[in-house]
């Protein structure tokens, strides 16, 4: 983390006229080695106790109550089903939310996923804290291994000890870099997940068609997946790595639009991983392996009431029955595969997740979204919008909200929600702003961000002109973003509120610095 940059940023964003003793007025006196803890305390002294009407805009806000609910839901579901849990921390890049994701007071293993090495380096103190309390820790670097990453990962391995670092491998050439880690003084052979392409086509090796039929045997094919398996097993024999499991990410499950449809993708993920793992065991009988599946839409479907209940009622859902049978079968197998679920954005949620309908409205609704971007209305343009409705300028464009859409999956293109954020029902007349409901994204009335450029966002009204809720110059608004990972990346820290504090829901109770960089 570039502390001087962050402290300078605090000074620029929070400078107040006629206050000669601004806390961060003289940043030249700040030691370049200022710790994260020191930075956090300075941020807290500046913001805690203020309300959302008193902080700079744009700011990114997290609701602690909703974060805890979202995180506890996944911990409880995986525990009830006996599944391993691996929390992805790329969404938020903070120590504080990582604690919630892994269960700060639990004794279970702390398995996390990172997308950048800077995340692993910054979470290192927390992992050492957990190790001191007897919890096993493991960090999976989820980007397929590239050469320049090896030295930093080797340093992490040396600090955390054996079996603490996992790598993602989807090509044999990457094993050269894995060996570099294993041969670094003080480091240990890394654990390896073979990354499988389950149809999303972002990363991963495509499984051989023979895996699904059970026909794969050593040396019978030049298919890239079989070549990769042989290469990893050979590297394992040479003590360059340890083949730990197979990993799949159903990113295409973000395109589901009906309740619980993502459950079918989860079943597919497990089956693809099982077929792949069995192909490995044909070459290496009895090899212990983890089948790691997930993306927030698929992973959260394990919260289906019929799955986590102890009864046999499946409500006629074949996907529920199939998944329960799969989990049960593994628990009864003589040499079972370990089943692991991974996810990240479930902790904050966003409009993309709401659009998936991965769960029904009893478990997934707009009010569960824990992240919002606070902005101000800088200008109003009466009659400029559709059907002579008003448009309004806010000081939050794509550099505050991101520019990643909710994919249009509607039967008629252009009808579904296509904005860049949706106004929360918060503040004054906007408490009556329509909330995205069970028919979202097909039905999406209310104020939303219709256009963005860098710093500019344009609010547009979707609905009848006579139903338009009036806006005012200087009014503050909170916006649910399309994708919380991208929206959060635009800021250096989160302001934390707690909606459980009745009468003080808008008061800042904490500040969580974010890690930046790669």
Automatic annotation (TrEMBL):
Q: Name one Pfam family in it.
A: D-ser_dehydrat
> From start to end residue, where is composition biased (Basic and acidic residues)?
16-36
Q: Which InterPro entries match?
A: D-amino_acid_metab_enzyme, D-ser_dehydrat-like_dom, D-ser_dehydrat-like_sf, PLP-binding_barrel
Domain D-serine dehydratase-like residue range list = 370-498
Which parts of this chain are annotated as the region Disordered?
Answer: 12-36
Q: What is this protein called?
A: D-serine dehydratase-like domain-containing protein
């Amino acid at each position: 983390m570039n502390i001087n940059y962050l402290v300078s940023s605090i000074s620029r964003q929070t400078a107040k006229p006629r206050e000669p003793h601004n806390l961060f007025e003289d940043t030249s006196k700040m030691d370049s080695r200022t710790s994260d803890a020191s930075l956090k305390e300075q941020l807290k002294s500046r913001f805690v106790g203020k309300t959302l009407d008193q902080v700079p805009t744009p700011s990114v806000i997290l609701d602690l109550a909703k974060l805890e609910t979202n995180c506890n839901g996944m911990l409880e579901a995986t525990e009830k089903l006996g599944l391993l849990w691996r929390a992805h921390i790329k969404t938020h890049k903070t120590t504080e939310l990582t604690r919630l994701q892994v269960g700060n007071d639990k004794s279970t293993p702390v398995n996390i996923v990172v997308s950048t090495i800077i995340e692993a380096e910054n979470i290192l103190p927390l992992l050492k804290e957990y190790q001191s309390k007897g919890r096993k820790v493991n960090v999976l670097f989820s980007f397929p291994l590239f050469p320049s990453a090896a030295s930093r990962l080797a340093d992490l391995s040396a600090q955390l000890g054996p079996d603490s670092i996992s790598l993602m491998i989807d090509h044999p050439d990457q094993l050269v870099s894995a060996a570099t880690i294993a041969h670094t003084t003080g480091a240990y052979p890394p654990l390896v997940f073979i990354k499988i392409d389950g149809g999303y086509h972002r990363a991963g090796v495509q499984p051989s068609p023979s895996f699904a039929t059970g026909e794969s045997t050593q040396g019978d094919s030049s298919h890239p997946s079989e070549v990769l398996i042989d290469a990893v097993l050979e590297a394992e024999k040479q003590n360059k790595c340890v083949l730990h499991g197979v990993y799949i990410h159903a990113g295409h499950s973000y395109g589901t639009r009906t309740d619980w449809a993502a459950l079918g993708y989860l079943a597919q993920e497990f089956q693809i991983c099982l077929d792949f793992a069995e192909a490995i065991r044909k070459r290496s009988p009895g090899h212990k392996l983890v089948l790691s599946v997930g993306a927030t839409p698929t992973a959260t479907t394990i919260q289906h009431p019929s799955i986590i209940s102890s009864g046999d009622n499946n409500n006629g859902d074949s996907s529920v029955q199939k998944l329960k049978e799969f989990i049960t079968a593994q628990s009864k197998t003589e040499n079972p595969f370990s089943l692991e679920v991974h996810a990240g954005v479930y902790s904050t949620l966003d409009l993309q997740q709401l659009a998936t309908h991965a769960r029904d409205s009893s478990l997934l609704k707009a009010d569960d979204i824990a992240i919002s971007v606070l902005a101000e209305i800088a200008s109003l343009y009466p009659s400029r919008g559709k059907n002579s409705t008003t448009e309004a300028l806010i000081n939050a464009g794509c550099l505050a909200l991101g520019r990643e859409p909710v994919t249009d999956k509607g039967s008629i293109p252009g009808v579904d929600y296509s904005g860049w954020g949706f106004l929360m029902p918060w503040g004054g007349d906007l408490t009556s702003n329509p909330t995205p409901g069970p028919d979202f994204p097909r039905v999406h009335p209310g104020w939303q961000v219709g256009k963005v450029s860098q710093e500019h966002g344009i609010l547009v009204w979707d609905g009848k002109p006579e139903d338009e809720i009036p806006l005012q110059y200087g009014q503050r608004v909170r916006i649910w973003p399309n994708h919380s990972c991208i929206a959060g990346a635009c800021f250096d820290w989160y302001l934390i509120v707690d909606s459980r504090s009745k009468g003080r829901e808008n008061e800042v109770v904490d500040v969580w610095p974010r890690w930046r960089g790669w």
